[in-house]
From TrEMBL:
Residues 3-99 form the Pyrroline-5-carboxylate reductase catalytic N-terminal domain. Pathway: Amino-acid biosynthesis; L-proline biosynthesis; L-proline from L-glutamate 5-semialdehyde: step 1/1. It comes from Sporosarcina oncorhynchi. The keyword Cytoplasm applies. Pfam families: F420_oxidored, P5CR_dimer. Transmembrane segments: none annotated. The keyword Oxidoreductase applies. This is Pyrroline-5-carboxylate reductase. Catalyzes the reduction of 1-pyrroline-5-carboxylate (PCA) to L-proline. Belongs to the pyrroline-5-carboxylate reductase family.
């Protein structure tokens, strides 16, 4: 991978840039960024990560091996129209935009190697959980390059394009659910009189420990849960409250709503491209 251009410079683009630059996957000098109008944002990324800003004549787009689409879904069609005449025929495209289908990207940028992925913002620290799918135009060499790039920012799993909607709901949006859980735990602890700093540290370590237990022991979640739950004890009382308040049903609804929204965004993009 000789040169990458990010089209879009939001939080997801920054997370991936941070991951690949910090892991030395690609030299910062070979990473370029452009966006619709926010020059201040581009300068921030340049100063923080050492990447370059696409020049006014956009020659970097023509020289790029890989274009990473990282705009908001509503901006994708204008973004593709802005870059199509600057791309070389060999350039592959990797989209990290929720819901936007490969067929929509093909309509905007022509038949070329195209991959869709859904990392999450933990890419910033090399801990993303990413799903990816590719069209048949992606060569084995390019496939390995894309998988290598995504592996540098965390784990990566190949899935079907249809499954990517669920991956978006599960791991793409997943960090926000975890942060929301932390907010709830912290607020409850503070309300009962625990100092906020103490609550935060205990919660973070509890999450880290639980995740490590799942990863290192290989045990099923329900086994680990039962190991912590003594009959008539405190954990059982807390779990009963979660069950009574439809905890699992709420989580299922959360995933369904997010997956459905990904499909809606995809349908909207497909409609605009036809």
């Amino acid at each position: 991978m000789k040169r990458i251009v990010f089209v879009g410079a939001g939080s997801m683009a920054e997370a991936i840039i941070a991951g690949i630059v910090n892991e030395d996957v690609i030299a910062a000098k070979d990473v370029y960024v452009t966006n619709k109008s926010d020059e201040e944002r581009l300068l921030f990324l340049q100063e923080k990560y050492g990447v370059s800003i696409v020049s006014a004549d956009r020659r970097e787009l023509n020289e790029a091996n890989l274009i990473i689409l990282a705009t908001k879904p509503k901006d994708i069609h204008q973004a593709m129209a802005d870059i199509i005449h600057h791309l070389n025929d060999r350039a592959a495209v990797l989209s990290v935009i929720a819901g936007v289908s490969i067929s929509t990207i093909e309509s905007g940028l022509g038949k070329r190697p195209i991959a869709r992925s859904m990392p999450n913002t933990s890419a910033t620290i090399g801990k993303s959980a990413t799903g990816v799918t590719m069209n048949q135009s992606v060569s084995l060499e390019m496939k390995n390059s894309i998988l290598g790039l995504l592996s540098a920012i965390g784990i990566v799993k190949e899935v079907s394009e249809d499954e990517l909607h669920l991956v978006t709901a599960l791991s793409g949006s997943g960090p926000a659910y975890i942060y929301y859980l932390v907010e709830a735990l912290e607020e409850a602890a503070i309300a009962r009189g625990l100092a906020s700093v103490t609550a935060r540290e205990l919660i973070i370590q509890t999450l880290d420990g639980a995740a490590s237990m799942l990863k290192m022991t290989g045990e099923e979640p329900h086994v680990l849960r039962k190991n912590v739950t003594s009959p008539g004890g405190t954990t059982e009382a807390g779990l009963h409250a979660l069950s009574t308040n439809s905890f699992k049903e709420t989580i299922a609804s959360c995933i369904y709503k997010a997956e459905n929204r990904s499909r809606e965004l995809g349908a909207l993009s497909d409609k605009i491209s036809t």
